[in-house]
Amino acid sequence: MQEFEPVSTLPSLTRPERSVLRASVRKERAENEERDLERDGWFRTMSASLALIKQAHLRLDAAESRIADQEARIAELESQVTSDELTGLLNRRGFFNAFVKEMDRTQRGHSHGGLLVLVDLDNFKMIYDTYGHQAGDAALRLVARTLESNSRAMDSCGRIGGDEFVLLLVNTERDKALVRAQNLIKQLNNLSLVWYGAELPIRASLGLKDYGAGDKPEDIFGQADGFLYAQKRSNKGLGPRSISSAF
């Protein structure tokens, strides 16, 4: 059987042509390798960039967490400085800060004014002397809850002394504020603390002063305090059932 050699369809190349072809192949191979290196470098660069971005986000989250913790701690410390530990109401400093801010809003026309209500418990020392400090503390907390139930979110109430409380009715017309004060004095003088079977009546007197633009906090407090002690002298520690018409 006769064998035939395959016949190439490609034209034969001269030596110079083969040299040119080899050079072209080498160049193309080098270019391909360079593109591969560039692509690999781009991927490595992107991977490094993504890693840096992720690390930056982690650091940012950690920083935000630390800031949140610090803000919570600051708020806690501020609360301790401005809150009464026994009742949870504002203490003297906290209340005066709130009152000064309210007076500033009134001066700038952001509040219509309101009513300052001072509350002083009558013959309260008798509860401490007869039934002890725990009974007295329970009575103070009962009064505090009564004040809170008669205040709105915008109002401020505090304990500014041993048995002295205060309520600031803000952005309220005088007549409406007096109605609320009248309800408060009735509730306070109908309170009783039941302590180990004994019913301990709670009595209180109020000092009132309305305020508006142009008033000074210390003047308002002074006038309310004067009204309060006039009330205490007139009711002789029995606790008034209504607000004196002298206001």
TrEMBL record:
It catalyses: 2 GTP = 3',3'-c-di-GMP + 2 diphosphate. Its EC number is 2.7.7.65. InterPro entries: Diguanylate_Cyclase (IPR050469), GGDEF_dom (IPR000160), Nucleotide_cyclase (IPR029787), Rev_trsase/Diguanyl_cyclase (IPR043128). SMART domains: GGDEF. This is diguanylate cyclase. PANTHER family: DIGUANYLATE CYCLASE DGCM-RELATED, REGULATORY COMPONENTS OF SENSORY TRANSDUCTION SYSTEM. GO terms for molecular function: diguanylate cyclase activity. Keywords: Coiled coil. It holds the Pfam family GGDEF. Residues 20-87 form a coiled coil. Residues 112-246 form the GGDEF domain.
